[in-house]
Design goal:
Length: 441
């Protein structure tokens, strides 16, 4: 970091009367972690970084190689709106390095940066725009519950949507933190909501997803409520998705748009789609990383299940929203908001670039309601299904050479270990459903 940049950042900290700094990073599962330092340590953090024990972080280092260093990315500077005043707190998102100064291979942010650099070598900038859904539940006796905070439905208003004020507070806080909010509204299920922010380059967007989640949880808690990004918290109603819009730009122009084709999609767009579809079973392990994620990926609740694409059909896994032009993009509808955005975006990009490099041919667009097709009809159309559980998805990831090379051995080993542990716990726990079903046998 150049001296002038450090000086400007220190001046800004002083001008904002910051007293504490949070150095934030993410573990392999996308959970935000942070180290808090007093303002007098700011210069040391900006010049030398701040050391921490990586062996205590999920999926990071083994104990014999645990020393890690956090290096703040000054472009991510933000004040925490709920911590202004006499104890003003600033936040930097950090890159994780080893003590000898090398980027840490297990840092999800570094994985995405490497993949973006590969796209840049090919002349592309990768932009993403996720749409995060979440539930706001009541707190009972100081603990999160599954009790609805409102009974609203899609696009409802107060008094049916009782969370309108909370959603407003979340939007105001995010705006103060530099977000460009495009819309906020009640979603389909009771107590379910969505707040959309403007697309950007994938690294900025991934940073924003992490910030969005912890800011939303914090504002909800300050209102005596609990915000959950769990994929399927309640049986029988819609789960929460993170539909991810993605596009490539080249020389400042949208590389997916071609006004002279029938669907106004360029060969690059179709090759990118083909690559995503070819690798989507492995991507699913990253985009849907929990046991619970696969309770959402079932027919009947608007979530995608079938591997297909369409220029308009919302039952397809990948669709191309209107209008075309500079906003031409694909929308991958399978991710959910429990995913690590750095790893998910890296996998989507790597898959798309593989499609471009190998000039893959996209299958025909599926423009009928896939949910209403028979199994025989889907088989005749060559439409496969996404993995039905975490263990199966992890197997597909481990067999995908492109995704394994993108993530690197450290991350792959960490994800495989997490899958084995969670699957074994899930497999051996006696569920209340089993007790109700079989206790009288």
């Amino acid at each position: 970091m150049v001296h002038d940049e450090i000086t400007r950042t220190l001046d800004r900290l002083e001008s904002d009367e910051v007293r504490f700094i949070r150095l934030q990073f993410s573990d392999i599962q996308g959970m935000p972690k942070n180290v808090a330092i007093p303002i007098k340590q700011a210069e040391k953090a900006l010049t030398d970084g701040i050391g921490f024990d990586g062996s205590s972080i999920e999926g990071f280092a083994r104990i014999e190689e645990s020393d890690m260093v956090l290096r703040p990315d000054t472009s991510t500077y933000s004040l925490l709106p709920w911590r202004k005043g006499t104890d003003t707190v600033a936040r930097f998102i950090c890159d994780v390095h080893t003590p000898d100064g090398r980027p840490f291979d297990g840092d999800p942010r570094y994985v995405l940066k490497k993949t973006l650099a590969e796209a840049e070598k090919m002349g592309y900038v990768f932009n993403t725009g996720p749409e995060l859904e979440f539930f706001i539940f009541k707190m009972l006796d100081g603990k999160p519950s599954l009790e609805f905070q409102d009974t609203g439905g899609y696009f409802d208003l107060a008094p049916t949507d009782l969370a309108e004020n909370v959603r407003r507070d979340i939007v105001l806080a995010l705006t103060e933190m530099g977000f460009d909010i495009e819309a906020s509204h009640h979603e389909v299920a009771e107590s379910q909501h969505e707040i959309d922010f403007k697309y950007s380059d994938a690294l900025t967007t991934a940073d924003n997803v992490i910030t969005f989640k912890f800011a939303t949880k914090t504002i909800a808690l300050l209102n005596g409520l609990h915000a959950s990004f769990m994929a399927k918290p309640i049986y029988g109603i819609n789960g929460s998705g993170m539909h991810t819009n993605a596009s490539l730009a080249r020389n400042g122009k949208n590389a997916f748009f071609d006004p002279d084709t029938s669907m106004q999609l360029s060969p690059i767009a179709l090759q990118f789609i083909a690559g995503v579809l070819a690798h989507v079973k492995g991507i699913t392990r990253l985009a849907n990383p929990t046991i619970n994620s696969y309770k959402r990926l079932v027919p009947g609740y608007e979530a995608p299940v079938y591997i297909s694409w369409s220029a308009s059909n919302r039952t397809a896994l990948v669709r191309v929203p209107a209008p075309r032009g500079n906003s031409t993009r694909i929308e991958l509808r399978s991710p959910d908001p429990t995913c690590n955005p750095y790893l998910t975006f890296a996998a989507i990009l790597a898959a798309g670039l593989d499609g471009i490099k190998n000039e893959m041919e996209a299958p025909p667009s599926t423009d009928t309601n896939i949910f209403k097709m028979s199994a025989a009809g889907r088989e005749a159309a060559g439409i496969e299904t996404l993995p039905e559980d975490l263990k199966t998805a992890n197997s597909h990831l481990l067999q995908d050479e492109v995704l394994c090379a993108t993530l690197g051995p450290h991350v792959i080993e960490g994800l495989a270990s997490i899958t084995e542990l969670e699957w074994d716990r899930f497999r051996t726990v006696v569920h209340p459903w089993e007790v109700g079903q079989y206790l009288n046998y």
